[in-house]
Amino acid sequence: MSVLAILFISLILLSNFNNKTEAKAFLFKETTIDHIHIALKQNKLTSRQLVEFYLSEIQRSNPILKGIIEVNPDALFLADKADQERKSNSSKSLSRLHGIPVLVKDNIATKDKLNTTAGSLALIGSIVPQDAGVVKKLRNVGAIILGKATMTEWAAFRSTNLPNGWNGRLGQALDPYVASADPSGSSTGSATSVAANMAAVALGTETAGSILFPSSANSVVGIKPTVGLTSRAGVIPISHRQDTVGPICRTVTDAVEVLDVIVGFDRDDFPATKKASTYIPHGGYRQFLKADGLRDKRLGISNYFFGSNDIKTYQQHFNTLRKKGAVLVDNLVIPYTDLVNNAIVVAQFTALSAEFKMDLNAYLKHLVHTQVRSLADVIAFNKISPPEKLKEYGQDIMLEAEKTNGIGKLEREALSNITIACKYGFEKMMKENKLDALMSPGADIADLLAIGGYPGINVPAGYDKTGTPFGISFGGLKGSEPTLIEIAYGFEQATHIRKPPPSHPQ
């Protein structure tokens, strides 16, 4: 062998050694999109190494936490593809999400080897016609679909007895901080998996609290966008009026990075995405990550959400918000409280029941292949093929929905009540008090935001005596994401409360 050949082989071996050393030096746990993007750009990390790390974490933690229902068998292939694109200086590789693994909730369609089932055995083997709108946007920038996050079956619209984070496919997901704590739902796996470092970032969906609540319960950041800001095409639905897709991440910055990618017009979700596209700021949302984002923001504290114990728990945060320049407007009363309560408790369920049947039937009819083509088929399947636990939990919500027959007089009255409650309740209070956001302990504001399609952001706010996490949520009027991001980021940077969960849940 010539001296030149020996030198060439030595250089290759040295290069491989350096790459492995650099990968070991990279801090995978709690890493952010920014850190990953820089490391990839500087050739200190490969997408394959990144995916291999998350696969190893899944193998180690998922048997206990049950946060991921299915891993993409092509994840490493997609990682190698991303690495090759980066080497060839592909224009796609310039994206900040390029080569980064993303976990998506199991009700978000992916046209690949993964199932899309909403946690239900009835949809195993079904074939979707195409990727969901948000998945298309992720793939367009070179993000890697790592797998499907577990969820409360049928997004908690199967039974009132169904525990948060439980489904017939995987069983019960656990909170990574405290095993006995409620992991919340329905985007349970998206929140628990990101919290436990089994994924870099994730997507969840929300109809009435399913992003904000699990984010609060698992000490992560969740953004529930204005309805229509992100496409719902290809998402197993509950209601076209309330459904939305949003990011669940460990930091506000990461959540905003993902939001920037998934917002925008989708012809398959018209006219909602066309209307909401007018809210998207020129230059995207990243520009609103301002360290002084709390300055001069008017934040509402309503006794509708904050009881005396909550005031004590969050008093330190109120002081921090004031120190950072926010103006806190307290003792607020939501106008027409009885009307608002009725809209949330009664009218919302009346409308959702009818919408669920109509929207789910439409979704199922468009599947390329499935053993169920209607809500009635799903109910029949559940009766003959239930795991033992599902016999106990039942399907009372589905049975009530099946009784509906479109939008009739009762539903129109419910929708009218919701519209009035929003206009003369939440919107009136926000405008009269010139509020930038209304705050709530945890995600208690979720239902109020849900009925009007308003946005909200949850940020980690602390841990109770048992170590169970809790958050704080900021909600605003439609299209107020830029302001909410400034507030959430300002709060996060002023507090830096989030800490990773223990190696094993307490």
TrEMBL record:
<dbReference type="InterPro" id="IPR036928">
    <property type="entry name" value="AS_sf"/>
</dbReference>
<feature type="domain" description="Amidase">
    <location>
        <begin position="50"/>
        <end position="442"/>
    </location>
</feature>
<feature type="signal peptide">
    <location>
        <begin position="1"/>
        <end position="23"/>
    </location>
</feature>
<dbReference type="InterPro" id="IPR023631">
    <property type="entry name" value="Amidase_dom"/>
</dbReference>
<keyword id="KW-0732">Signal</keyword>
<protein>
    <recommendedName>
        <fullName>Amidase domain-containing protein</fullName>
    </recommendedName>
</protein>
<dbReference type="Pfam" id="PF01425">
    <property type="entry name" value="Amidase"/>
</dbReference>
